[in-house]
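My current task is to audit a protein record that another person submitted. What it holds is a sequence and that sequence's fold in token form. Thanks in advance; the entry in question is below.
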Amino acid sequence: MDKIRATPITRAELLRRRERCLFDTSILISSWKAGPGSVFNDQWVLSIPRARRRISIISRFEFLVGLWPTQTPERERRRREEWLGDTFDVDSLTAGISERFDRLLKQRLVLPQDLADALIAATALMSTAIVISSDRFFEGIPSLLVAKPP
């Protein structure tokens, strides 16, 4: 029996649809590194209308705190926060997201190293958002819509 998997979404289909887009931390990092005016940003981030661009509070924490040394200068941290605020809206955790996360855990779809991604997936499932990520974890979550940049 085939394993039920996430539904892949092409870039063209992503642009035609109206659902909110939840950008994973991997995309935040790629976008930050690519910089303004890059093909990656123009095609995979800024081409999505601003009102549809979202990140989970989990991705915000990972991007600002978990992926750089704690010695990050205050000025650099402020630049990152400003960029996030200018580019994305943030989805906070809710009781519904926590319950959906718990169901993912009970379905044994989550390993300990995947907890942050599972919270992001639960956020997308609760808000019927399309996850934009280069992370393979999301491909294994049934009912999740996933767009994967090249």
